[in-house]
Amino acid sequence: MGKIIDGKAAASAVRARVKSEVENIIAAGGRKPCLAVVIVGDDPASRIYVRNKVAAAREAGMESRLEDLPASVSQDELISLVNGLNADPEVDGVLVQLPLPSHIDESIIIDTIAPSKDVDGFHPLNVAALQLGRECILPCTPAGIIHLLYREGVQIEGKRAVVIGRSNIVGKPVAKLLLDRHATVTLCHSRTRDLGSVTREADILVTAVGHAGLISADMIKEGAVILDVGMNRSADGHLCGDVDFEGCIGKASLITPVPGGVGPMTIAMLLQNTLKCYKRHVEGA
Length: 285
Ligand code: NAP
Description:
This protein has 285 residues and is an alpha/beta fold. It has helices at 7-27, 44-59, 75-87, 106-112, 124-132, 140-151, 171-180, 195-199, 245-248, 263-284; strands spanning 3-4, 34-40, 63-69, 93-96, 160-164, 184-188, 204-207, 225-228, 232-233, 239-240, 254-255. The relative contact order is 0.17.
């Protein structure tokens, strides 16, 4: 029987460490780190994510500013709001919740966020720095996955790692982070032929697809470490991942549940990134 990776506990530990660093900063007379979160429109899922991010920042003792804009806001108005946050010396991190309404070009908005305040790690300069192996702000979910592997003492070097999903926010960056740690990495996607023949090779399997039940027990290797990023609704309405958890737990050595696995790490890493931006900001000031 595989061990369940407790993402909630791992995230709580990161959040407690960030909170205690913030307390030390404030006790020493420093300014509170500040995260600005921008939401456009009424997408219910986005509203929940944003509320959780704002609450988590406050819970860590940070300042958190919510910029709540109607779906009718123009691209130029959003750009000028982001520019204002970029220029504000009291703001350390800027996050624009995606997706944006279709009349707004997401790439232009991401490009507008100051790279030094880009707590999501989506700005092209941060993406390029990651590819070049330079110091950068890491995207939150991939950073959380690597954190879980370290916390569980999983050796990455020399292992066969398979990542399913090639998004810019999860699949590609997590593949690069595994490569940097000397895994032999295969990146799969919707055109991959005979997915099972690839996933059965994986010592470490990361799934970031959004397809419930994509990975069944016959598709994994005995003793594999499985990190399930997928967030799906099962037929009975429950939140579930891409992996058949019940089927795979007997064969995996370590496995993340959904919910309670990778998900909680994303917000923890966001707080860690905000603190990192704050420190650089204050030191550079
Ligand atoms: P995405 O942009 O939705 O793309 C999905 C990826 O899966 C694509 O690369 C697609 O291939 C691939 N794919 C689709 N069907 C496939 C199949 N049958 N076999 C193999 N690959 C297949 O990806 P994302 O934004 O990274 O999101 C993926 C999942 O992770 C979603 O469920 C999302 O909700 C979840 N997520 C969770 C967190 C968290 O904090 N836990 C954070 C981000 C995302 P193509 O490129 O060929 O289309």
